Structure formats: structure tokens, C-alpha cells
Amino acid sequence: MKKIDFNTILHSDNRRSKMASKIALIAVTLSFAVIVLALCIADGFREQINNKAIEILDYAHITEQPSYFVTSDQVIFDSTQISEINSIIAPEALIPTISSYVVIQNGINVLPTTIVGAKNNGIKNGTIALSRTAALELNVQINETIELLYFIDQIAAIKSLRVDSIYNSMLYDIERQLAFVSFDEADLIANREGESVSYYAIKNPINFVKIEQYANEEGFLVESIEQRAPQLYGWLSMIDQNMLLVLLIMTIVATINIITSTLIVILDSTTKIAVLRSLGMNRQSVEKLFFNKMIKLITIGAVIGILVGLTLAFVQKHLGIITLDSSLYFVDKVPIYADFINILLYSIIMFALIALTLLLPIKVISRISISRTIKYQ
User: Would you say 94 and 85 are in contact if contact means Cβ atoms under 8 Å apart?
Assistant: First the structure.
């Protein structure tokens, strides 16, 4: 006796069922492609802007714990404290840094700013590094001389410095207020007492919780870059929230299409379902066949969508086709960073949510009457 091929019976779809399946496949593909691209863009913004911010603002600052009445801008660690902190943040090391408020003048152009001098920052004495924003506002170019106006013991002082370099972070509001000089130059302008500094800087990400715990025990204050630039990181958080919204919308779109397509396929297959049931297949087995069929469709759509999303991200990363207004977005083109673990995690979540929704239309099979279906055929 010839063996009955249940899968052949099930997959002999009519034209309408095939069209519904194609629409569902396209919807799933587009949803996964958009999600992958959105993740790459969101991570790209965070990676590029975070790197730029750390480059000019440092990852963290360690200062003295402020009292109830005054905040000290001078701090000094003994060798034991420095050694203990360096062991916590290793392989990074604390960077003694001095900052001071000054007014930069170039002819009639003036700009209040903060000069920053870090130990061994590579800047020569007698020179200054300005941001592009500050240079434009002061109308100054490389190798030209500007004047710094500051106070020493309430007495006004003027110092001339040569513009050695002009940097452009595109973080215009932040970079406008920062200029960099050598540590010795900053020490001279700030007129520090002894070996005190304004703060100790940490350049790269470290175990922030552990260093914060140590600092609190020792009576110091640790400020992360998120705490010192709340508006910038608030903007990045908004991007993350928008990305989650995109994830939700794309999941809903794919889910609705999958539910609709599954219902169409089931309703168009009532005769086949009745035949399968009359041949001895129980309801759970029939439901499993339809479920596996739609899961296969979702899997194909997910794989294609992920590949399409990664391809588009690759093209944007290397060609920079989509540009942006850097005054609004802090970058001049849409940034891309592919965190494959993040992409995999979100893809699994989205796949699971879509797959779970299949349980709803599949249950329609249990309402199909075998006798009535076969009777009216």
C-alpha cells in the first residue's frame, strides 16, 4: 500500500494562499531588515558620539567630595592613593589635569572658555589647541597668536600663545568651551599651590562601580562622562528609545501580516485539513504541520532580512551615502556600528514574538468541521 504523504497534500496551495505567503515573507524580511539597520544606526550614534565626547571630556573625573558650603577645585592624592586607584583601573592610569577659566582674545574677538592641561598630553609649552568652533568665532588660524586673559591673586594677566592645532569634534556646544594647553602652561595660568590639580582624569571606560565605591570610602567624588554631559547622553537615550519603538512597530507589522496570511492559508485549506483528518491525522498533528510551515517562512524571511539589513549597513558605513546636518546630529553622515550580539539578541526576541502569535490563527483549525467541509465539496 502506498504511503500517504501528508506534507504533499498540505503544501499544494492555491494561488491565493501562495500570494498570502509571499506577502508574509516580504513583511517579515522588511521588518528584520529595518530592525538590523536601526540597531546599527543607534549603536553607531552611541559609539561615535561617545568616543568623541571621551576624547575631549575624558571618561571620568575624580575630585574632592564637595562640602556643604563650598566645592574645592584643588585636589591632591598621595602616592598610596594613586597606586590603589591605578590598580583598580588598570591598565589605565590616573592623569593629573589642571583646568582654569580664561578669556581668549584675538583682536576685537573674545571668547570665554576653559583651558585644560593634562600631564603628558603632547602639547608644547607656548601653544594651544582650539576647537574649530572657537577658531571660527575668534577668526584665528593655525600658527597665529592669540592672547589669554586671566587673574592671578585678583590681578589681571595676559599671556600670548600660538595656535598649534585646530580640532573638530562636531560637539559644537561642548568644544566651544574647551581649549587645550600643556600641563605646565595650565599650572602657570591657574597658579596652583604645591602639587594640587583640578582633578584626576580617566581616559577610557573602566570598572566604574568599583572605582566609585573606593572613592566614596576615601572621601573623593567620581563623575562619569554621562553625569558631566547630561544633555548629550540624554539625546543618545532618546535614540535608544526611538529604536525600541521601531522594534515594536516592525514586530507588530510582521505579526499582523503573519496572522493574516496564516488565516488565509488555513481558510483556503479547509478541504485539505478535512482530508488529512479523515485519513486519521489528529488535530494536534495538523496544527503542527501548519505551524512548521509558517515557522519555515518566518525563518527564511528573518535570514534574508538580516542579510539585507547588514548589507545596507555595510554600504552606508563605507560609502556614507546618507548625510546629516552635523549641527543637529553631531556627525556628518549616518553612523554605523554592527554589534552582532545585540543584533542576534533582538532578532531572537522578534522571532520568538512573531512565532508565538502563530498560536492564535492555528487554533482556527480546531473549529473546522470535517463532515460539513467534505459534505459541501
Answer: yes
Contact 362, 262 (CB under 8 A): yes
Q: What angle do CA 88, 91, 97 make, to 5 degrees?
A: 80
**CATH 2.40.70 location in the chain:** 60-203
Q: How many CB atoms lie within 10 A of CB 59?
A: 20
- The helix (run of H) or strand (run of E) holding residue 165 is strand 155-167
Where does 60-203 sit in CATH, by number?
Answer: 2.40.70
Q: Please report, for residues 138, 346, 363, the alpha-carbon distance to residue 294 in angstroms, rounded to integers and kept in the order given.
A: 65, 20, 14
pLDDT higher than threshold 70 for residue 32: yes
Please give the single-letter amino acid code of residue 213: Q
pLDDT at 69 over 90: no
121-165: pLDDT as tens digits: 989 999 999 999 999 999 999 999 999 998 887 788 899 999 999
104 forms bridges with which residues in the sheet?
Answer: 111, 148
Nine cell digits for residue 260 = 493574516
